[in-house]
Design goal:
This protein is α/β, with parallel strands linked by helices and about 240 residues long. It contains 10 helices and 5 strands, in the order H-E-H-H-H-E-H-H-H-E-H-E-H-E-H.
């Protein structure tokens, strides 16, 4: 549902003639040259495009993102690789805080980010890895913000980022690294909780930071306790 709605939003912007560029978290800096060398032959089929980009199917399902990427390139929109590469990730993990992320978040935000990362790893992440994990997360956000800025420097209109909800957060994510005063809209697709019927329940759960401008609710799926699965694997 979320990927279909992402594609729907892009099509609406495209039909209005305002969509200028699309940045994808699913593409990293190692694929920039491939993006620059897309030809009509590459766009002859979805399969040809996937092969040309050396798409990471293990990390990102082509069925989810390929159609959005294909439509954007066919429409002549600027497509940006918004993520850092694996080599860059390792360098950041073992390195120091870069100028791109220094001073962007206050201590309260950093504390919240640490809490979120801890919870996303089911409380199993060693304390010694927190600083590096936070540095990588912030570096990804800074790179995604830079891709939007690069798009804005090359044309007017709307510059969209397709990324996970966490990156889209105003309080902790990409918006903290965006330069300039242009209008910014953060949209989150969020699964309904069968026990929470009121929109206010979700607003309260997100906290006082109000991380998103809009919440778009989608049907719920059968819940899975991934942390229980992870802990069971660790015990084995």
């Amino acid at each position: 549902d979320h990927h279909q709605l992402q594609a729907f939003v892009l099509r609406q912007l495209r039909e209005q003639g305002v969509l200028s560029s699309v940045s994808f978290e699913m593409l990293d800096s190692s694929q920039r040259e491939a993006l620059r060398s897309v030809t009509p032959e590459v766009l002859s089929s979805m399969g040809a495009l996937k092969s040309h980009l050396s798409w990471d199917e293990e990390g990102w399902s082509w069925d989810y993102y390929g159609p959005m990427l294909y439509e954007a390139l066919q429409a002549g929109e600027l497509v940006q690789a918004a993520n850092i590469s694996s080599d860059e990730l390792m360098s950041i993990y073992g390195g120091e805080e870069s100028d791109a992320i220094k001073g962007r978040l206050e201590q309260a935000q950093l504390k919240r980010l640490e809490q979120e990362i801890d919870e996303s790893h089911c409380g199993m992440l060693p304390q010694s890895q927190f600083a590096a994990m936070i540095r990588v997360q912030r570096s990804r956000d800074a790179q995604m913000a830079a891709s939007l800025g690069d798009g804005a420097s090359k044309g007017q209109g709307v510059h969209a980022l397709i990324a996970g909800n966490f990156h889209a957060r105003r309080d902790l994510g990409v918006p903290n690294y965006i330069e300039g005063s242009g209008a910014l809209v953060s949209l989150s697709f969020i699964e309904l909780d069968a026990e929470s019927a009121s929109p206010n329940d979700y607003v309260e759960a997100l906290g006082a930071g109000q991380p998103f401008d809009y919440l778009w609710f989608t049907p719920s799926i059968e819940p899975q306790d991934y942390c229980a699965q992870l802990r069971a694997g660790a015990v084995q």
